Amino acid sequence: MSENTVAVTDQGFEADVLKADGYVLVDFWAEWCGPCKMVAPALEEIGADYKGRVRVAKVDIDANPETPTKFGVRSIPTMMLFKDGNLVAQQTGALPKSQLKAWIDKNCA
């Protein structure tokens, strides 16, 4: 991925997200998904803007089908915000950076 986002697999989801301290924003995406590609640069910037506060993780649903199924992901992009391993918010669809930041700010106490 990059220095601001991390790829997470089915095998690593528990350790990287569910057992992580603090906030983790998980982006469920796929290479063939146009809206996913549209939101990717905003998530990259958010990873930098919120460094130390919110970790941005990306799960490729084609390579890792177990985790999206477990969390009921039906369309992509779907973003889920976890705090200390607990799901606190979910957002589906490609939103502009300003709306994504507002969503994060609203759900990160």
What's the short version?
This protein is α/β, with parallel strands linked by helices and 109 residues long. It is built from four helices and five strands, in the order βαβαβαββα.
Overview of the structural elements:
This protein has 109 residues and is of the alpha/beta class. The protein is built from four helices and five strands, in the order βαβαβαββα. It has a five-stranded mixed beta sheet. The mean pLDDT is 95.
Topology at a glance:
Elements: E1 5-7, H1 13-18, E2 23-29, H2 34-49, E3 54-60, H3 66-70, E4 78-83, E5 86-92, H4 97-107
Parallel strand pairs: 1-3, 2-3
Antiparallel strand pairs: 2-4, 4-5
Helical percentage? 25-40%
Succession of helices and strands: EHEHEHEEH
Strand order of the largest sheet: 1-3-2-4-5
The average pLDDT score comes to 95
Low-confidence stretches: none
What key attributes describe this structure?
109 residues, alpha/beta, five-stranded mixed β-sheet, 4 helices, 5 strands, 35% helix, globular, disulfide bond
